[in-house]
Specification:
Layout (H helix, E strand, L loop, with lengths): L4 E4 L9 H14 L6 H8 L4 H10 L8 H13 L9 H11 L3 E4 L4 H8 L4 H5 L3 E2 L1 H4 L7 H9 L7 E5 L2 H10 L2 E5 L14 E3 L5 H4 L5
Parallel strand pairs: 1-2, 1-4, 2-3, 4-5, 5-6
C-alpha cells in the first residue's frame, strides 16, 4: 500500500555515520577508562541517545566528566565534517516521493546540529529542513512513539497511513507503538539486529520502490 507520509531515521538510513561515530565514542571512552571496541560501541548505542550512552558507559566503569556530552559531540562533529557516505538509493527514493507528492520527514534521536553536519554536504539537509523531529528539541526519544505521532499530526496523516524506516530496534518499536508500518533497514544484511521484531526488512533502499508502491 502506498503511504501518505514516509518517516526516515537519519543515521544508518540516510547517511552512513554510525561506524565513524562509534569509533569516536570508542576512542573517547578509552581515554576515560573504559576499553570498548568500535564494533561493541556501535552494537550497544546505535539508535539511542547520547545521554543514554553516557549513563551506560558510566555503569560499565567509565569516569566521565559532567560536560562529557559537549566533549563527545565536539569529537563526533569533527569526524562527520570530514564527510560521510549517503546510503545508496536515498536520493532516488526521495525524488520519487516528491514526484508522487508524498511528504517525507525525519524522526531521529540525534540532535539537529549533528544532522546538519552529516546531511549538509549532500544536499539532504535542505531536503529535510523544517521537517525534522528530534528529542533534543521536542523531547520523547524513541522508542517512545510520541515524536512519530507528532510528525503524523503535523502532516494531517493518520498513523496507519504512515511508514517508518529505521535501522535500529528503538525505531521499529516506536513505529509499532504508534500504529505505523515499520520497515527495518539492515544494509546488505550486515547486522541482523532487527530480526524477530516483526518489521519488514530491506537490505537495499531501492527495495522501497516496490514495497511502498512507488513504481505504479
Amino acid at each position: 500500500m502506498r503511504p501518505e507520509l514516509v518517516i526516515f531515521d537519519c543515521d544508518g538510513v540516510l547517511v552512513d555515520t554510525e561506524p565513524a561515530t562509534a569509533l569516536a565514542v570508542s576512542r573517547n571512552l578509552a581515554r576515560h577508562g573504559l576499553d570498548m571496541s568500535s564494533e561493541v560501541s556501535q552494537a550497544l548505542f546505535t539508535g539511542g541517545t547520547m545521554q543514554g550512552t553516557m549513563a551506560e558507559a558510566i555503569r560499565r566503569g567509565a569516569d566521565l566528566p559532567s560536560d562529557w556530552l559537549d566533549e563527545i559531540y565536539g569529537e563526533m562533529f569533527a569526524v562527520l565534517r570530514k564527510g560521510v557516505r549517503v546510503l545508496d538509493g536515498v536520493h532516488e527514493v526521495l525524488d520519487r516521493l516528491d514526484g508522487l507528492k508524498i511528504p517525507f520527514c525525519i524522526v531521529s534521536n540525534g540532535p539537529p546540529k549533528k544532522m546538519q553536519v552529516s546531511l549538509g554536504p549532500s544536499g539532504l539537509w535542505d531536503r529535510f529542513e523544517g521537517r525534522i523531529w528530534s528529542p533534543h528539541v521536542h523531547g520523547y526519544p524513541k522508542p517512545d512513539p510520541t515524536l512519530l505521532l507528532m510528525a503524523a499530526e503535523a502532516f494531517a496523516v493518520a498513523p496507519t497511513n504512515c511508514v517508518m524506516i529505521d535501522d535500529s530496534p528503538v525505531g521499529v518499536i516506536a513505529a509499532q507503538k504508534a500504529g505505523m508500518r515499520a520497515i527495518g533497514f539492515d544494509e546488505a544484511g550486515a547486522f541482523g539486529r532487527l530480526d524477530g521484531l516483526g518489521a519488514e526488512i530491506v537490505e537495499y533502499l531501492d527495495e522501497l520502490h516496490g514495497l511502498l508502491s512507488l513504481t505504479e
